[in-house]
Amino acid sequence: MTLFWRRWVFMVLGGALFTPYALLAMIGIPLVIPELAQVDDVVLALLVAAVIVTVIGLTSLLPPVRTLEGAVASGLLDDAAADLPVGPARTWSEQFRATCWFYLHTIVGAIVSVLSLLIPAVAISLIVTALTGRSSTIQEIAMIQEIAIDRVWAAPLAVGLLIGLVLLVLATGVAAARTAPHLLGPDPASRLAELEKRTRELTERNRLARELHDSIGHALTVTTLQASAARTVLRTDPDFAERALLAIEQTGRVAGADLDDFLGLLREDATSRSPQHTLQDLTALVAAHRESGLPVRLEVNGEPGQVASVVSREVYRIVQEGLTNVQRHAGLVNTCVRVEIRDEQLTVSVRNPMPEPAEQPSRPARRNGSGGRGLSGLAERVQLLGGTYRAGPEEHGWELSAEVPTGGRR
């Protein structure tokens, strides 16, 4: 029942919007052109109608009109129009459909509003006739051609008119609710553009999630291993313990800066920028692991500058994850990082020997459901770049390798 009244209010609002246009045409035209007072009534009515239609159409071109109509439709029509995403028209197709909607809302709303005033008044007059027997005519109320109503038919006619008005409001309300998404909603091109925009946003957020996993996971692994090593030799080798604490401090600062950048992007803070570690930063990455006690060697053959920025960034993350896994699973073993850039292909590998079971580094047990996204995340990265990826045991140990297109200079 509430929905019925809301839709009735919606139609009455359309009549209220129509009223200024009608007053402007019926009062303004004779004032501006007095000669029209002698014109035939039919011609004058057609002229007034033409002016009303023209002014309504011009008004519908104003950007706020579509937005306001969409807000009113969403709030009062309910059903299909409840979540109507509207705003100023972005294409001529949207503007044309918004104009058609404004015409329908104002003109149909005016008809429903007039009938909402006349029918109850006529019905009351008929009910009075049925109760008192006083003769009455519809002309007295509706100012139309006189129609005499017999007392016997007065009450049924009054009820029929009221039921007809209710059915009219129901029909126009349902029609408006079903029509609103088609006339006020976005056209197919706009829907596709919005979908593409949303897809780009989701893709970027997924990339940020992978970046955050790699960056913070790397930092936590290095920090845990350094702290464990420093605690072990704190009394026997203070110098090593000091270097380990320094590495923890530096790793924490880098991770904190990365986290701040990521959170800034998620907050859509324009001043924040995503960390852009690339192949140029591999030397610093390897040096940081050396300071943590990992004997790692870096070999770079080729010119990193010819690699596309997106590829360079992803290859950096592959090396970072590989070195983190070495320290986490193999310990402080001799490790080789090799990057080879040839023409349009880049090959990267991280190799390390497999320690004997007795030499496996001790580490806290993982909680259920944590971790496990590193290697699968790398596989997704390489697949998106159009390359191949492998991680597993080799003849001389463990190797993580990937081969991807360089993507050309950026």
CATH superfamily of the largest domain: Histidine kinase-like ATPase, C-terminal domain
Look at the helices and sheets and give the structural class.
alpha+beta
Number of domains: 2
* Percentage beta strand: 5-15%
The number of distinct helices, counting runs of at least 4 residues, comes to 11
Number of strands: 5
Subunit organisation of the chains: single chain
Instruction: Summarize the helix and strand pattern as letters.
Output: HHHHHHHHHEHEEHEE
Shape: elongated
The residue-averaged pLDDT reads: 78
What is the CATH topology of the largest domain? Answer: Heat Shock Protein 90
**Arrangement of strands in the largest sheet:** 1-2-3-5-4
Please mark out the parts with pLDDT under 50 across 5 or more consecutive residues, or reply none. 139-145, 358-372
Roughly how many Å apart are the termini? 63 Å
Give the radius of gyration: 38 Å
Write down the CATH class of the largest domain. Answer: Alpha Beta
Indicate the percent of residues in helices. 55-70%
Instruction: Based on the coordinates given, report the CATH architecture of the largest domain.
Output: 2-Layer Sandwich
The largest sheet is: 5 strands, mixed
Task: Jot down its keywords.
410 residues; alpha+beta; 2 domains; 11 helices; 5 strands; 64% helix; 9% strand
Description:
With 410 residues, the chain is an alpha+beta fold. The protein has two domains: 2-186, no CATH class; 193-405, 2-Layer Sandwich (Heat Shock Protein 90), CATH 3.30.565.10. Helix content is 64%, strand content 9%. It has eleven helices and five strands; from the N terminus they run H-H-H-H-H-H-H-H-H-E-H-E-E-H-E-E. It has helices spanning 2-32, 41-60, 63-76, 92-132, 138-142, 151-184, 188-232, 238-266, 282-291, 309-330, 374-385; strands at residues 296-301, 335-342, 345-352, 388-394, 397-405. A five-stranded mixed β-sheet has the order 1-2-3-5-4. Helix 9 packs parallel to helix 10. It starts with a helix and ends in a 5-residue tail after the last strand. Residues 139-145 and 358-372 have low confidence and may be disordered.
